[in-house]
Amino acid sequence: MDKDLRIIDVDVHNDLKSPLELVPYLPEPWRTRVAASGIGMPGHGYMSPVGVVRKDCMPPSGGPSASDPDFLVQDLMQQFNMEHVILTGNMTNISTMHDPDYAAAIASAYNDHIIADWLSKNDAFRGSITVAPQDPLLAAKEIDRLAGHPSMVQVLMGSAQRAPLGQRQFHPIYEAASRHGLPVAIHPGGEGAGGTPPPTPAGYPTRYLEWHTCLSQNYMAHLVSLVCEGVFEKFPNLKFVMLEGGIAWLPHLMWRLDKNYKGLRSSVPWLKRMPSAYIRDHCMFSTQPIEEPQEPQELISIFDMIDAENILMFSSDYPHWDNDMPTEILKRLSPEARTKIFNTNAKTLYKI
Amino acid sequence: MDKDLRIIDVDVHNDLKSPLELVPYLPEPWRTRVAASGIGMPGHGYMSPVGVVRKDCMPPSGGPSASDPDFLVQDLMQQFNMEHVILTGNMTNISTMHDPDYAAAIASAYNDHIIADWLSKNDAFRGSITVAPQDPLLAAKEIDRLAGHPSMVQVLMGSAQRAPLGQRQFHPIYEAASRHGLPVAIHPGGEGAGGTPPPTPAGYPTRYLEWHTCLSQNYMAHLVSLVCEGVFEKFPNLKFVMLEGGIAWLPHLMWRLDKNYKGLRSSVPWLKRMPSAYIRDHCMFSTQPIEEPQEPQELISIFDMIDAENILMFSSDYPHWDNDMPTEILKRLSPEARTKIFNTNAKTLYKI
């Protein structure tokens, strides 16, 4: 990598030392329950045979990987010459919880923890306002509560949802984010758990390998919905960030959606441009886990088709099992494209 | 098009003149019920704003489009210099029915109708053994019953299924097809209807435009399942035909699945090769509805990535709203690739 290219990593999973860290920030009745029984996050039943979190980056101070701010700076940021990291935490699966009040309480407590125990520790950290989409009005309130914090740079929720994210019940979230000039990001992980549909349109796959491979399908479904429901016409300054959903499916999706739009546009009269134009102007994608063809040049061809240098942002997914390290990918891009993907696209989006 | 290139069209939707055409082939109690009340196919609730069937190709003899064998020969085969058509009918949505006995009875009656009212009418027609997957042992019996017919060239079922198609409950269907040397094909249309999961991993989209665009996701899920469950190791001569599911997503899917396999292969120890190798050797894809980029050369780049000339077969989807006509696509291929895609790939697969 270019020695003078400082990286912004847009998907770093800081972890709780223990669920008990949330207790001081929870109101009753949740405080007593969590203190006694933990968070009770719904599970999807798919277990990675290699674990989800790397074991080789556990902090010497104890606790799980990525639970110590100082060690995260040393192990990730200093090693890879990072200027900033966008903390995405480990709580987006609250989107799969059944009780909207409990989900909203956990989200608020988690956000307070992020501010107190992470953002205050290092100026290079930026945070995400995690929201529970089950009650979109409560989610909008949470955005209003925290959007003024100078280091909170986006709204974040799970891609595991009860419904496609373009549908109208979610619009209060976009209204609030848009009003505060914050992007909305989604992150996978809870697909198939709790109150969410089966993780594929074919139902429940058998193993983590299949479940993980199929996560991109959920991103495709949300993206089609966001465009067709007119979210980007209704909220013209809204930016949507698709974290960890893959990218090489974009040519297929944009071409198929544009073609169908040409034949069926009477059903979405609020759209004024081709669907792919909304995607190019309003959506950003993170690199990890980047698809890896045997012939690297084929990925570069895909990059050319999707204007990658303007819609991609580097992410490591540290400390997860499949995290991509900066030196391993994107070697073949032009210096200009590398600078955008590794730094300036994120800097512009997050107004850093 | 090359004047001497005769076409084989692998997805032609012959239709019933009326559901009553099935009545003579149904046993009781279904005969009386269908005669009185029709078939009662589950609906998914998504309506195309332009209709599903073209109105400009209704036969002068009366009845719905593609319900008259002679007019189909004239309107499709003669006009586009077709050597053979593979009839895929309009009954794959029986895969969404709730009652396995009723679904199997409708499938058998439909197959008897195809033999009597279509295959006997023209030597250029080839038929599909439609099966109801709800009871795979009954489906296998139906395959055994009809595999000997010289014009029945494949087993066909809906891609709308209760579960991913690699899972073990479906293996009796593959065992029977494999034993008779018949490919197994799937076709979309019933996604989200009857006993099937929501048509996307994000739940139920709002409109036909979104539903139709997302159909490819179901194909991705089935393909991941077929490979990971080891179907192509267990049935090494089995060929799987993915009709009307799109193709430009294949680079994404093959690269993502191969990458995940490298990290997680301990969970699928029966696989002996890279997942993409099974796809290339065992799966065939139909062209319609082909993705259409603004820059046609980008589709050719995708073709190169997926060895398209050896895995694609031309299909028109006649007489559906979005059917692709032979003169409109694939113009930029080499003559050799055109011959394979428009003729010899199907001839080899279907042993014509």
Structure, explained:
2 copies of one chain form a homodimer. Chain A is α/β, with parallel strands linked by helices and 352 residues long. Chain A has one domain (7-349): TIM Barrel, CATH 3.20.20.140. Chain A is 39% helix and 11% strand. Chain A contains 12 helices and 8 strands. An 8-stranded parallel sheet of chain A has the order 1-2-3-4-5-6-7-8. In chain A, helix 3 links the parallel strand 2 and strand 3. In chain A, helix 3 packs parallel to helix 4. The radius of gyration of chain A is 19 Å and the shape is globular. The two termini of chain A are 22 Å apart. The relative contact order of chain A is 0.14.
User: What is the total number of structural domains of chain A?
Assistant: 1
CATH superfamily of chain A: Metal-dependent hydrolases
What name does CATH use for the topology of chain A? TIM Barrel
Q: What fraction, in percent, of the residue positions of chain A are helical?
A: 25-40%
Distance between the termini of chain A: 22 Å
Computed over alpha carbons, the radius of gyration of chain A is 19 Å
Gross CATH architecture of chain A: Alpha-Beta Barrel
What oligomeric arrangement do these chains adopt?
Answer: homodimer
Order of helices and strands of chain A: EHHEHEHEHEHHEHHEHHEH
> Order of strands side by side in the largest beta sheet of chain A?
1-2-3-4-5-6-7-8
Please give the number of β-strands of chain A. Answer: 8
Top-tier CATH class of chain A? Alpha Beta
Pfam family, one (chains A, B): Amidohydro_2
Protein name (chains A, B): Amidohydrolase
Domain Amidohydrolase-related (chains A, B): 97-351
Organism (chains A, B): Paenibacillus baimaensis
